[in-house]
């Protein structure tokens, strides 16, 4: 995903500039684990355009393996972060509908290959919120991870 962030304390409706950062919950966890020396593989889908190529380059720069990073669709998922200040918390606006990732299907994923030798599988609640297809894919991925004895780490957003 591509994050657009306002300046500290600035509201989105008042912003005329945004800082950009490639990331997203799963990618951020992957970067952290890679920084601790773990082999990390990302399973996702990005568009075959400059934004997708730059997102892949960003992941690789942290040592994340992109063997299972699929290409297709037309747009990279985005989100907008309105940074909080004082007692006003940060706000997030998601722009993931119709993204390449939201169009990912079960038949594109090589579950047995991905989970062979894996220790940990991480997924977040935003994945299941994007589409009914991703709800099914997430459930199938959890089942496949369990079949392979892979520890599941999930974080559901409330």
Description:
By secondary structure, the protein is α/β, with parallel strands linked by helices. The protein has five helices and eight strands. It has a four-stranded mixed beta sheet with strand order 2-1-5-6. The protein has a two-stranded parallel ribbon with strand order 3-4. A two-stranded parallel sheet has the order 7-8. Strand 3 (41-46), helix 2 and strand 4 (65-71) form a beta-alpha-beta unit. It is globular and about 50 Å long.
* Low confidence ranges: none
Q: How many H/I helical runs?
A: 5
| DSSP strand tally | 8
State the order of secondary-structure elements, H for helix, E for strand.
EEHEHEEEHEHHE
For CATH, the homologous superfamily is named as Ribokinase
| First-residue to last-residue Cα separation | 20 Å
CATH topology, which one? UDP-N-acetylmuramoyl-L-alanine:D-glutamate ligase
CATH class: Alpha Beta
Structural class: alpha/beta
Sequence of strands across the biggest β-sheet? 2-1-5-6
Largest sheet: 4 strands, mixed
CATH architecture: 3-Layer(aba) Sandwich
Question: Which percent band covers the strand fraction?
Answer: 25-35%
Total number of distinct structural domains:
1
State the helicity in percent bands.
25-40%
